[in-house]
Amino acid sequence: MSDQDAVIATLISYYDAIGAHEFDAIPNYFTNSVTIVTLAGSQSVTGAPQLAGLYRNLWETWSAKGISTKMGYSGEEFVVLPVQSNCKLAKTQLTNFDFDGNQLQTWNCTYVMVKEDGNWLINLATSDNRASADWQKT
User: Fold this and answer.
1) Which helix (H) or strand (E) holds 29?
2) In angstroms, what CA-CA distances link 18 with 30, 81, 125?
3) pLDDT tens digits for 29-54?
4) Cβ–Cβ under 8 Å, residues 87 and 77
5) Which of 77, 63, 89 is CA-nearest to residue 3?
6) Is the Cβ–Cβ distance between 90 and 7 less than 8 Å?
């Protein structure tokens, strides 16, 4: 599998874990210390329990707004750009839905992915998702 395909596979697995509420699996897609940048600002998170808690909080934030964690995306439209042999920049566009499956909005995400022990992991995640503007650490 090419590095580009591996980066895309990592992101798709990450999105699927969010959609399936597999919050304890989400840290497997990140480096141990990560920075997340949203419309609310940036936050650094270190450690699997803290990262899993952050995504549980995301679910609570979205759920309170009537937003499902199911996300729409097209892996064929992901853009992966080389930075260096162990670092890639990935750009995606996602769509979220209400609990009835109605489309709510589309937004952009950009990731700095690093290769550690043969796995591509998210080191920096950015989003312009308005639904997550008030998402903060737990």
Assistant:
1) none
2) 13, 24, 14
3) 999 999 988 887 888 999 999 999 98
4) no
5) 89
6) yes
Model confidence, pTM: 0.89
Among candidates 116, 109, 87, 105, which has minimal Cα distance to 15? 109
> Running DSSP on this structure, what letter comes out for residue 78?
-
**DSSP state at residue 27:** G
CA angle in degrees (0–180, nearest 5) for 55-22-25: 85
d(CA 82, CA 90): 9
Over residues 95-119, the pLDDT tens digits come to 999 999 999 989 899 999 999 999 9
Band of pLDDT at residue 138, cut at 50, 70 and 90: very low
For residue 80 the two structure tokens come to 């992966």
Distance between CA 135 and CA 138 in Å, rounded? Answer: 9
Alpha-carbon span 86 to 16, nearest angstrom: 24
* Contacts of range 117-121, beta carbons closer than 8 Å, 24 or more positions apart: 119/10, 120/3, 120/6, 120/7, 120/10, 120/88, 121/10, 121/29, 121/30, 121/31
The one-letter amino acid code at 125 reads A
